What we know:
47% of the residues lie in helices and 9% in strands. It is mainly alpha-helical.
Amino acid sequence: MSPNKKSVDGMIVRSAQPKTPAKKPVPTKTQPPKQPVDTKPAAQNSVQLKSEPANPNQPPLTGWSWGAFLLNWIWGIGNHVWIALLVLIPIAPINLILAIYLGLKGNELAWRARQWESPEKFIEAQRQWAKWGVVILILGVVVVLASIALVALLASSTTTGY
């Protein structure tokens, strides 16, 4: 009698085939081998990118939003974040607190307020807002410094009698 057959009360019963360990699939040309997962911690940046949001309400870009902080009410109109219009209330503490809030939560607010084509389009749009915010900030500083220099130059020329 073969090893996988047993006799029980005169009847021959086949026992289950012995289990063999499962073979790992061999990668083929159509199936690339899996890449090892990098377990190193990400660099600590003020802006972090996420590959794909697990939740569609979770933005692909987190961290500080320079566009929302520096261009607050203009950024709010462009991104349909209407709470940003509160910075137009001429009360200094409200403006500062709201600008900081928009800087902290701007990416999340913008992601939820509009329907974006893709996470990449969202990231690119927010980077453009940040770039223009910094450009306008630098231009503003240059204009203020030039104004101070001009006033100082005019004040010194009037006191000398020329």
